């Protein structure tokens, strides 16, 4: 395959991702793979069920932003998880785990990539957005659905900029050595399965799971002057000093330190490190 618009091979995906995943399904088109799996959770879908769509017509990112998901040009996937031994307060760290899986996969394809807290994947010299993560929790069934959107083949001009005007890019645009979407999906879901298992063993705490140091190393936000735009429309400006085991960003804001658990980060200057 030439990696441009190639069709996902469900049989190959299911074969190579077993037994790490209970089920792997590929659909031609859907509104949102996250929404589909949240509905399947109510019908008893198994732990570690994965759903991949050739296109999404109502793809969503964080804070209800649209994620443009044209047919055959990216990976639009979700994984349903039932981590019954992880405290509810730690379920949010799964988004950072998914970000790590993206970073491992994309750098393994020869692309320079880093993470912007909490889970945006930036690629190439321009640090453009290549992927994002949306995790949603169904408290009624202690289920988490982790959605990942990864731009693989060349982008159309219709892809909007992200928060803070962050431009979009793709694996193809950054010179990835392989853009066959089946191969990329196998690599990404395999990396996520390995990291998610460690995350469960650590009770959802990134430090206990042995993942925090790697996250810190890959996170370009640390050491940068940033503005965090909070869900209530307030904003905090400071230097991103650290990330803790619960995935919270620690800011040096003047004479005080503030801890942020949710928000959009805009980098105000290049990382000083």
From TrEMBL:
Record-annotated BPL/LPL catalytic domain positions: 5-200
Catalytic class of the enzyme: ligase
EC number: 6.3.4.15
Listed GO MF terms: biotin--[biotin carboxyl-carrier protein] ligase activity
Record-level GO cellular component terms: cytoplasm
UniProt cross-references to PROSITE patterns, sorted A to Z: BPL_LPL_CATALYTIC
UniProt-listed InterPro entries: aa-tRNA-synth_II/BPL/LPL, Biotin_CoA_COase_ligase, BPL_C, BPL_LPL_catalytic
Protein's UniProt name: biotin--[biotin carboxyl-carrier protein] ligase
UniProt KW Transport keyword: no
Keywords for this protein: Biotin, Ligase
The keyword Ligase is assigned to this record: yes
């Amino acid at each position: 395959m030439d990696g441009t618009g190639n069709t996902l091979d469900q049989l190959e995906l299911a074969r190579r991702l077993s037994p790490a995943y209970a089920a792997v399904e590929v659909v031609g088109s859907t509104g949102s793979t996250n929404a589909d799996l949240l509905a399947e959770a109510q019908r008893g879908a198994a732990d570690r069920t994965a759903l991949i769509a050739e296109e999404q017509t109502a793809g969503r990112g964080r804070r209800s932003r649209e994620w443009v998901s044209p047919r055959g040009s990216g990976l639009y996937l979700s994984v349903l998880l039932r981590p019954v031994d992880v405290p509810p307060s730690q379920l949010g760290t799964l988004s950072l785990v998914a970000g790590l899986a993206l970073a491992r996969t994309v750098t393994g394809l020869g692309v320079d990539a880093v993470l912007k807290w909490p889970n945006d994947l930036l690629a190439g010299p321009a640090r453009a957005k290549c992927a994002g993560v949306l995790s949603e929790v169904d408290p009624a069934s202690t289920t988490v659905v982790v959605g990942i959107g990864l731009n693989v083949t060349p982008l159309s001009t219709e892809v909007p900029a992200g928060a803070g005007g962050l431009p979009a890019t793709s694996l193809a645009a950054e010179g990835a050595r392989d853009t066959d979407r089946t191969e990329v999906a196998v690599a990404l879901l395999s990396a996520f399965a390995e990291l998610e298992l460690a995350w469960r063993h650590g009770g959802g705490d990134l430090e206990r799971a042995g993942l925090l140091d790697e996250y810190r190393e890959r996170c370009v936000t640390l050491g940068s002057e940033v503005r965090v735009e909070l869900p209530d429309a307030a904003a905090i400006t400071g230097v991103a000093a650290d990330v803790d085991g619960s995935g919270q960003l620690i800011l040096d804001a003047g004479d005080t330190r503030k801890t942020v658990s949710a928000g959009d980060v805009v980098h105000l200057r290049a990382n000083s490190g």
